[in-house]
Specification:
The structure holds two protein chains of two kinds.
Chain A: H1 2-21, H2 26-51, H3 59-78, H4 88-107, H5 112-130, H6 134-137, E1 143-144, H7 155-160, H8 162-165, H9 173-195, H10 198-208, H11 210-215, H12 220-246, E2 248-249, H13 256-269, H14 276-294, H15 298-312, H16 316-326, H17 336-362, H18 368-374, H19 380-404
Antiparallel strand pairs in A: 1-2
Chain B: H1 2-32, H2 39-57, H3 59-85, H4 90-112, E1 128-132, E2 135-138, H5 139-161, H6 163-173, H7 175-180, H8 185-210, H9 217-232, H10 237-256, E3 260-261, E4 264-265, H11 266-269, H12 273-284
Classes of the chains: A mainly alpha, B mainly alpha.
């Protein structure tokens, strides 16, 4: 219990640190994006990790929540809707949840592969349909709103919005970062609470064995549907926050690539542990911003990381930490085997990065690392040979180490235990 | 009238291409239990490799070699990636092939750039086969239909009437028995997956040259193929056939209509229609048209 409490305190500190220590700039934008990504990944994991539903269309709920929020923002800006900006995510939550009531009805009948395919189809449908109604969805350019100077003026809303009474002005990135941090913490707490409700437990039962759940009188379809509604509402919260942060919502927010980003973040982090998706969301945000700033190859690394996790650690980054603790690797930290293992892993990584960077440089889009490789004596060719040698040597060492070591305890299984 | 006839033929040739894709997906699913998310990516690779090979060795070599290359890649994928997660079940396999699709999309952009490639059918088949009331029907479309039909008949006959087909089917339903009879079951799976990939590659050479070869082609056709499989019923080949025809015709015909429903013209709504059809089918027949009721 204390360990759980410590995790939450650390999480809250992590959320509060950026707005405490930074006044503006890149760090705050990054922190705001990370907060939104955390809510999205956690909401996604209500489906994948807790209910065993692999979705390729979760962006629909986030995106429609974002659209609801941006339309509300426009009305607030025009003075025709007395509503506190700080509570806009509630509108998004209602929108996301309502849409999930409709779409969940169609898609919740089956789990497994059928659900995955249907979610993809529904995601594509909503994305394509958005182009048909330019007044609502803004066509190619999307819908924009201005959050600058948005305060609540009516007395009714003032009593609701403490933030507005304090005179929080959302024109500054700083205030928005605080707002997002607060909503992220609140949403994460609520989603954690959800896992402990009877519905959350039933979701686990439906994930593990829908037939057995049905036998004891639980309708798997109803459970899937209710979880989809809850997850849709949380996705709507994240969507509204992105509407407040970016002041623009377009059909891109609804599309499959946006859904895929949530899947990748949640899965890389680990679907078996509550905080796993948080780690995944942080990794994803760093990859798509910081790593993307130095190399155009970042999607390649993200995809490779995803496949590596599927193959070697299906419980995600979270399970790697747990496994390491259980297998006593921490105790052997500093031993020769441990050192070799780390060094060889780094060699494989460096070799892989070197080869990928060289390939991108050859194709005419060099990143920063390719610039360094070109400065080697012999230029690019040396870089390729060196990288390949590092990769092969690292692999060889890892193979020999693996042959000597007893099998590690089995990594946490995938959400689907039925197979 | 001429619009109707030419649209009918165009719709049919597009439908057959869709069926070639959904048949490959369905066959691999019903023989291996693997839902291959990267199927459309193999289609895209077929188109790109076909373009590359046609530059070096001409179109007809590309038509043969590109599917073989994609098939070989499929075998490598099965041998070195898919086999490792097979034990962990269908979701793990779907996630792996999804990751693969993500990487292939990125690799294609890296190797061939982001814009569409000038990949066209061979000159001999570019002309019209015949004209109907002034509307020409391209010979290439006819060839495309013939090739797709021939491939599909060949698969059906192989699976049904040959010894190889028998063993492949038994390998999924009775793996231990087939192994006891001296067959290498994992190798059979490798060849099956490779054959599915090669089929997608062939569809890619045909589809890429007939329509467009660009990095977004997998993301565009992948969901359509999935929708077809859902409408037809997961694992049902006849279902996939009916759904392919239906979706192909819906897409072809909707573009030509110019009346409007509730302020939205049918032509504009064309991209939405296949997905809408899926939702409607699911509302009334949750397991698809010809799917069985078990999950």
């Amino acid at each position: 219990m204390t360990s759980r409490r410590f995790q939450w305190i650390a999480f809250a500190a992590l959320l509060a640190a950026p707005p405490l220590f930074f006044e503006g700039g890149f760090a705050l934008t990054l922190a705001s994006q990370a907060g939104i990504a955390i809510i999205l990944a956690l909401s996604y994991n209500m489906l994948l990790g807790q209910t065993g539903l692999l979705s390729f269309g979760h962006a629909v709920y986030a995106g429609l929540g974002a659209y609801a929020a941006i339309h509300a923002m426009k009305l607030i800006g025009a003075g025709s809707l007395p509503f506190p900006v700080a509570l806009l995510p509630l509108i998004g939550a209602v929108a996301g949840g309502t849409v999930a009531v409709l779409l969940g009805y169609v898609s919740s009948r089956r789990g497994g592969l059928t659900f995955a395919m249907i979610s993809l189809g529904i995601g594509e449908m909503v994305h394509a349909a958005a182009a048909l109604f330019p007044a609502l969805f803004g066509g190619e350019s999307g819908i924009t709103a201005d959050r600058a100077g948005m305060r609540v003026t009516t007395s009714v809303a003032d009593t609701v919005a403490i933030a507005a009474q304090l005179g929080l002005d959302f024109s500054s990135a700083h205030a928005v970062c605080w707002l997002i941090a607060a909503w992220t913490l609140a949403s994460a707490l609520a989603m954690y609470g959800f896992t402990r409700t009877p519905l959350g437990r039933l979701a686990n039962a439906v994930r593990d064995n829908p037939e057995r759940a049905a036998q004891i009188g639980v309708d798997p379809r109803r459970v899937r549907w209710l979880v989809m509604i809850a997850a849709g509402a949380f996705a709507g919260i994240a969507g509204s926050l992105s509407a407040i942060l970016f002041e623009i919502v377009s059909a891109e927010n609804l599309g499959t690539p946006a859904s895929v980003a949530m899947l990748i973040a949640a899965f890389i982090g680990g679907t078996g542990a509550f905080f796993g998706p948080v780690a995944g969301a942080l990794v994803y945000t760093l990859m798509s911003s910081a790593v993307a700033a130095v190399t155009p190859a970042w999607p390649m690394y993200l995809g490779a990381l995803f496949i590596l996790i599927v193959l070697k650690a299906p419980g995600g980054l979270a399970s790697i930490l747990v496994d390491a603790r259980q297998s006593g690797i921490y105790g052997r930290f500093g031993s020769a085997v441990m050192g070799l293992s780390v060094v060889s892993a780094l060699a494989v990584l460096a070799g892989f990065v070197g080869l990928v960077e060289s390939a991108y440089a050859l194709a005419g889009s060099p990143g920063t690392a390719a610039g360094w490789l070109a400065t080697l004596p012999g230029g690019r060719a040396t870089g390729v040979v060196l990288s390949a040698a590092l990769l092969m040597a690292g692999r060889e060492i890892r193979h020999r180490l693996a042959a000597r070591r007893p099998m590690p305890p089995n990594a946490a299984a995938l959400p689907e235990h039925a197979a | 009238m001429e619009f109707l006839l030419v649209s009918l033929l165009n719709g049919l040739s597009y439908s057959l291409l869709l069926f070639l894709l959904s048949a490959g997906l369905t066959v691999v699913f019903s023989l291996m239990g693997v839902l291959n998310f990267a199927h459309a990516s193999f289609y895209m690779l077929g188109a790109y490799l076909g373009f590359q090979i046609s530059l070096w060795a001409g179109f007809w070599s590309a038509l043969v070699l590109a599917p073989l290359a994609v098939g070989a890649l499929g075998m490598l994928v099965e041998r070195h990636l898919l086999r490792a997660v097979h034990r962990r079940g269908q979701t793990a396999e779907l996630l792996l092939t999804f990751g693969l699709a993500y990487l292939i999309a990125e690799a294609v952009q890296l190797l061939w750039g982001r814009s569409a490639l000038p990949f066209h059918p061979p000159a001999a088949l570019e002309g019209p086969l015949f004209s109907l009331y002034g509307s020409a029907f391209p010979a290439w479309r006819a060839f495309m239909m013939a090739l797709a039909l021939a491939m599909l008949v060949a698969i059906a006959l192989t699976l049904r009437y040959t010894r190889v087909g028998l063993i492949v089917q038994a390998a999924f339903t009775h793996p231990h028995m087939v192994e006891a009879l001296g067959h290498d079951v994992p190798r059979i799976f490798m060849w099956t997956f490779g054959a599915g990939a090669a089929l997608a590659g062939l569809a890619g050479v045909i589809g890429g040259s007939a329509f467009v070869t660009e990095p977004g082609m997998a993301a565009a056709i992948g969901p359509i193929v999935f929708v077809i499989v859902v409408i037809g019923g997961l694992g049902s080949l006849p279902g996939a056939f009916i759904a392919s025809i239906a979706v192909g015709f819906i897409q072809t015909f909707a573009v030509g209509f110019d009346f409007a429903v509730a302020g939205v013209s049918v032509a504009q709504a064309a991209p939405v229609l296949p997905f809408l059809a899926m939702v409607l089918v699911l509302l009334f027949r949750p397991s698809g048209l010809l799917g069985n009721r078990a999950d």
